[in-house]
Design a protein that fits this description.
This protein has 147 residues and is mainly alpha-helical. The chain has one domain (6-143): Winged helix-like DNA-binding domain superfamily/Winged helix DNA-binding domain (Arc Repressor Mutant, subunit A, Orthogonal Bundle). It is 66% helix and 7% strand. The chain contains 6 helices and 2 strands, in the order H-H-H-H-E-E-H-H. It has helices at residues 6-25, 32-46, 53-60, 64-76, 98-118, 124-143; strands at 80-84, 92-96. A two-stranded antiparallel ribbon has the order 1-2. A hairpin with a 7-residue loop joins strand 1 and strand 2 (92-96). Helix 2 (32-46) crosses helix 5 and helix 3 (53-60) crosses helix 4. The protein starts with 5 loop residues before the first helix and ends with a helix. The relative contact order is 0.10.
């Protein structure tokens, strides 16, 4: 009997998801991660919350240097502005430009369609079970050192 490697399976699936998302937003010069960041900032802004680099690091579990690089590219391409926070001059608030807001509306529809496609052929019970299993994997990962 062949041994099952769930880590490899999850990594392979995540990689395919990333490739698809990257290909979807390439025409806007956005990577999948940049599109996800736009969505995160948009959601926070709609809730009346300001977003700072640290919030992005925490939300996406990525290093400061990686976030800096992504934000620099997004700023260069006209998707975000960084404005000094009133409360602390060391903090830079992430602001979406009009260009980003227009693309975000399109991104929202594309993501909804994409996620619906991922769940095609699954019953509500299947979806609940998938959610439960992925949550369990994440709980197990949190118990491991460094995750």
């Amino acid at each position: 009997m062949k041994t099952y490697h769930p880590g490899k399976h999850v990594i392979d699936t995540a990689h395919r998801l990333k490739l698809y998302l990257d290909s979807t937003f390439v025409r806007h010069d956005l990577s999948g991660m940049q599109a996800r960041i736009l969505g995160f900032v948009d959601i926070c802004n709609r809730q009346g919350k300001s977003v700072y680099q640290k919030d992005i690091e925490t939300e996406f579990r990525i290093r400061r240097s990686s976030v800096t690089s992504v934000l620099n590219t997004m700023e260069k391409n006209g998707y975000i502005l960084r404005r000094t926070a009133h409360s602390d001059a060391r903090l830079k608030e992430i602001i979406l430009t009009e260009k980003a807001i227009r693309i975000n509306d399109e991104r929202h529809g594309l993501i909804n369609a994409f996620e619906s496609s991922l769940l095609a052929g699954m019953s509500q019970e299947d979806i609940s079970k998938l959610n439960s299993l992925l949550n369990k994997i994440n709980e197990n990962l949190e118990r491991l050192k460094g995750c």
